């Protein structure tokens, strides 16, 4: 829930501070476990915290002195103590410690106090050394907290908004890479046993904040007395866009492996044979039910797949591959075998810098393969590469518990193209692909970094995807990537500005969806801006429910976007296969929840999507969704706002007072599910106490600040969208903003539940009139819950200013009781309603390269549309 996200972030920020705090805390447990070194006393004044340690020790001994059992003589000088308990405790480190350590109670004259002090100083020295080691590896010359902050590209903004009662308080919002471990969900749910699908500890990756916001609030002199919604605080004027730029700079500055190109440039393929230029032909009308406004005839692809549907009832296994810790962690551990606990602390800090470590890994690679990379760079330049594709992504979070099995993300990436068992093929592909990349695997990432910008750092949530390597490998081999490197296997669909193909990167078994657009056609039809918008947006995205753009290039005046392939068809097709042609409510809830997170992310990036409809929601192989098609989107600026307390919950906009859910099951729809995500030791026994606990928790969650990044100032007068989904303000030409996405979100939910849109008329004109004039009605059947209908009602408010979501965006909508019980942070790990029907990859036997180039690319674009004919 929204509040959850908020809570997550705060906890995360708290986590951010932990390194500083831990430096002292971690010391203490080692008092009893430390290893004495020598009798020498290091100059403790050099390390500030050593004084604290000594103080602690002194206090400890004083406490022992003072609190020792009466009549017991506790001697710290002679080492004789009649307290066996203390004796044992104190003996332990020394007994286990180094042979030269002084013995307590033994014959050595050294005092116990002195011995312990030395032990602790020794331990502190070890810790300091380890910290230095880890810091020098990950980010030289940065404090731990600073290092974390800098690597996560934080936005630190003074909350000193004029009139703000929180003067003096500091609000920090940082956008963290997705691979990093969020801790919020851990805080909220960790006490319970691991989720059944083995979520990673980075489960907050599932949270909507992509970029995830972590908030650190130092209340300082804050009076904390705000009570109304006016207390929302501007976090700052930095829009995510600005953050993106900063991130890019940061990344490129810190990592030579990450190169970024100008947004408006593409990499032309200089070596495309003339034979690949194919004739144009007239368009094929879109078979979809809805015509799109704003452009010529649109087309919609329905896959003709007849594979049987499988209900997914087995939780997906998400095994953690903590590659990110990698060598640094190991090294740290090796260097400090006697400081296991300390090492853990350090490692946990390093974990939180996951993406940074990945980048460092790349850098390391770069160093070891610099010659090769340089050669390739030169080669690329000489090949006439104008610009490299890079994803000017906003570092995202989570974020994410990497949903991976074994080679995980990579396995997801390698969607097999052979006909037999998809799963088996997948594995085969991985190994084959890996081996095909074999020798160069160690350098391919770094090479790719320089050549394409398609680095692990660009799309953290897909950083382990083997397709980066595959592309990089080809680039390193040939110096340039073009259409000739792909085997076009199947036409997936045709849109207004291009045609999408399923394609295999030759020799890699890696599948992609390639959107091919004819620049000449686009220019002639004045659709270049749409293509440009889509390209720019795609490049920014780094979110599990949005497509990953791997690379882009121009091949013989064809602009190609190489994207993640989504084999499950679209929601429009899937809905029509449901009984009654509509989804059951839990399934609908699943899909709209994921779409909501995608929209929230887009809004945070300053993108108003404007074209939500089931046709644009593809189903991934794992059953989760992918929102596509951004050519009608509106780009704008956005100012993240931190809303304090529960002021963001406007009861007038929500029918029922929301309750925060802490259920670990992302789709537990049982409203009476009480505090189930806490372990037994936290579970109150009586129902009454349970209820109280839940209320307390809900109150706490509601009191947490909430990040809202809704582009409230976005305005456009364009008449864009799909008839049945058009918002009234668009039809009326009054100008519109981000609220149109919440209108379409309401229509979308309605359609999923009822199998039709609410205002559809006999024709487009009537539909438009209905949207503006007709009141919302719900059919008697199928039966839909009150909460679902209530949410739809609040979204389909004709005046945008009164529409749910208009003011506070997705955060507001997530609070609606329809989503009660849904753990937003874990949504990505939820088991989807059903397995998608995968496209039958009944790909014809691959033709010879000559035949491919001469026959596959029969590009035809005449009249309204452009199309590439494959066969
Ligand atoms: N990544 C992908 N994976 C699988 N299929 C895809 C992918 N991207 C697009 N498609 C399919 O290709 C079709 C055409 O997509 P495209 O985005 O070009 O057209 P569109 O959705 O009709 O929108 P527009 O007309 O605005 O371009 C889609 O309907 C979809 O079925």
Describe the structure in your own words.
By secondary structure, the protein is an alpha+beta fold. Among the domains are: 469-565, Phosphorylase Kinase, domain 1 (2-Layer Sandwich); 566-644 and 706-836, Transferase(Phosphotransferase) domain 1 (Transferase(Phosphotransferase), domain 1), CATH 1.10.510. It contains 26 helices and 20 strands. Helix 1 packs antiparallel against helix 5 (144-151) and helix 14 packs across helix 15. The protein is globular and about 70 Å long. The two termini are 48 Å apart. Bound molecules: adenosine-5'-triphosphate. Residues 298-301, 492-498, 500, 513, 515, 547, 563-566, 570, 615-616, 618, 628-629, 631 line the site of adenosine-5'-triphosphate.
Kindly summarize this structure in a few lines.
The protein has 871 residues and is α+β, with helices and mostly antiparallel strands. Residues 486-819 form the Protein kinase domain.
Q: Label the overall shape.
A: globular
What is the assigned CATH homologous superfamily of the domain at 566-644 and 706-836?
A: Transferase(Phosphotransferase) domain 1
Q: Helix/strand-derived class? A: alpha+beta
* CATH topology description of the domain at 566-644 and 706-836: Transferase(Phosphotransferase), domain 1
Radius of gyration: 29 Å
The CATH architecture of the domain at 566-644 and 706-836 would be Orthogonal Bundle
CATH class of the domain at 566-644 and 706-836: Mainly Alpha
Q: Report the count of strand segments.
A: 20
Q: State the helicity in percent bands.
A: 25-40%
Number of helices: 26
| Mean pLDDT level | 58
List all distinct small molecules, including ions and cofactors, that are bound in this structure. adenosine-5'-triphosphate
Major sheet details: 6 strands, mixed
**Strand residue percentage:** 5-15%
Quaternary structure of the protein: single chain
Model regions low in confidence, pLDDT < 50 over at least 5 residues = 1-50, 64-110, 131-265, 270-290, 294-454, 655-683, 839-871
Largest sheet, spatial ordering of strands: 5-10-11-9-8-7
Distance between the termini: 48 Å
